[in-house]
Design a protein that fits this description.
- The chain has one domain (3-175).
- The radius of gyration is 25 Å and the shape is flat.
- 69% of the residues lie in helices and 0% in strands.
- α4 crosses α6 (142-154).
- The protein has 195 residues and is mostly helical.
- The mean pLDDT is 85.
Length: 195
Amino acid sequence: MTWVDAVCVGVLVVSGLLAFARGFVREVLGIAAWVGAAVLAVWATPYLRPRFEAWMHDRPALGEPVAYAVLFLASLAVLLFLSHRVARLVRGSALGGLDRTLGLVFGLARGAALIVLAYIIAGWLVGPVENWPRPVLDARSLGPAYDGATWLSLRLPARFRPHVYAPPAGRQTTADALLRAVPQGRATGPHPVRQ
């Protein structure tokens, strides 16, 4: 196990615990609030841009970005407030335990998605696997990250599909290999007979 594996485990643990503490409903509604704020800002900016350009008569070119930023921040504040209220209602109900448990599962999935995205970005920035640092190549988490990156890239449209570099041969850790590990140590050696 290398420091890369420790970082991967840390990402999974922190993401899982944060989502467990916040709950599934708050996590999902929080993401929906960010997406909703962006959609609302994109949709409403053309309608409000002329007003912002009129207010900023000395710099009309700033009208559109300022309108977008104001709309985004205002709608984000409202949507996050609403998501917090709904999440508080769910947490206080009989579904609170289920909400936290599903939050933990969501957090672990989010952590795994971050690791897969890091693998894809590393391939994009660094290039072929031969250029990657030795601790990354020796990491046991490299195989599952590659599998996740391959799975994700195959589901993207062809023009957006990133090139996923395969890890070096022989670095795959399988469950079968872990189960066939030869135990070593005192437990397998001869034991002194006590009288």
